[in-house]
Amino acid sequence: MSALAQLLAHRGRQVSGSDREESPATALLATKKIAVCIGHDRCSIPADCELLIYSDAVPEDNVERARARGMGIPAMSYFEALGEISKRARTIAVAGTHGKTTTTGMLAKILERSGKQPTAIVGSIVRNFGSNFLAGSPDLLVVEACEYRDHVLKLSPEILVITNIELDHTDYFPDLAALQETFRKAVEKVPAHGAIITDPADPAIKPVLKHVPTRVVDYTAETVPELGLIGEFNRANARAAKAAARAAFPDIKDGAIDDALAHFRGSWRRFEYKGETPSGALVYDDYAHHPTAIRKTIEAARQKFPGKKIIVAFHPHLFSRTRDFMDDFADSLATADEIVLAPIYAAREAPIPGVSSDVLAKKIAALGTPAQAFPSLHDAYEYLATSYQLPATSLLITMGAGDIYKVAEQIAD
């Protein structure tokens, strides 16, 4: 949403907005002179407003959406608005269960480095750009797509990147087959002269590509330079970005691509270094909120910091996801040396009886890894910062899609 606001403002529209609380995104918008009112019930909609754009996090009964209806103001979801922009540009969309943000940022950096002037909308703040938006030509759009609620189908990509497919968003997709059906429809929307960048040998992706006339490019065949980011999963993201850049612009030289990848500095909340505690413990923050992403992040952290005691402070995201992947979460988190759990970040959901961080903590402990659940983020912070006193030999990773990053910032301050 904040990237879209920047895009519209850059194109001369008068843009303002609201959010429930301040965040790095609202702070970024303030630097771009885009007004953001904090607290939906305290915010007013301008009388001359021509369009209201809302995110999935804002329900239909939200007070501002209700006001807009009463004022007769048309409304669009974020992806509907993005879809309108996509229709007017040559679009490269990056989708997949894992790695979308990093791959989108890498691809935008490659195209910028190569003089192609992309306009880019990324799901997190990219350090190289200082923003989640890159201003460029209106004729070329690089955008992070999302499969949730079939949002990817609102876009009109000439090139579609599918990093991987794994069951997620179980509040919408009942099983993997339903998720694959959404990706199959997305693949069918790619024109014959376009390209699909993916791993065609992946068992979850192979059925999606059946009978597709569009060219399929296997990104796993690409070579990439030494990266500044940890983990084999980021090397896979780099391969996908490189393959997409070459499919879009065959004239781009490998040297330019590899230089851009080698100097890509990552994104906010993607294994982001936050600092050290007073005792000398390292503090990182990561957005991982799916069992696979958690496991791979912990594995990569062990490779980068051998010998460190890895402590993960995890903020489970959604009651439905925690319920449906409870055992998988326990298995992945148990690969760390100690786990601290915050309460489940409900986001758009109501609590589900019998699903809690306490239940998850018991399952992790049963696998032999010490785990404790705390009633609030503040209690988790108090334990880590004062009661526990992280030793210098430890590495703390705050992890999850909620507000757990604030604990990392407080501890490393």
Radius of gyration: 21 Å
What is the residue-averaged pLDDT? Answer: 95
β-strand amount: 15-25%
Number of strand elements: 17
The helix-and-strand class reads alpha/beta
Main beta sheet, described? 7 strands, mixed
Strands across the major sheet, in which order? 7-6-8-5-9-10-11
Task: Explain what the structure shows.
The protein is of the alpha/beta class and 413 residues long. Helix content is 35%, strand content 19%. The chain is built from 14 helices and 17 strands. The chain has helices at 2-10, 24-31, 63-70, 78-87, 100-113, 176-189, 232-248, 254-262, 291-304, 319-324, 326-333, 357-366, 377-387, 405-412, and strands spanning 16-19, 35-38, 52-54, 75-77, 90-95, 119-126, 131-134, 140-144, 159-162, 195-198, 215-218, 272-276, 282-286, 309-315, 338-341, 371-373, 394-400. The strands form 4 sheets. A 7-stranded mixed beta sheet has the order 7-6-8-5-9-10-11, sandwiched between helices. Strands 12-13-17-14-15-16 form a 6-stranded mixed beta sheet, sandwiched between helices. A two-stranded parallel ribbon has the order 1-2. Helix 2 (24-31) links the parallel strand 1 (16-19) and strand 2 (35-38). Helix 9 (291-304) packs parallel to helix 11 (326-333) and helix 13 runs parallel beside helix 14 (405-412). The radius of gyration is 21 Å and the shape is globular. The two termini are 28 Å apart.
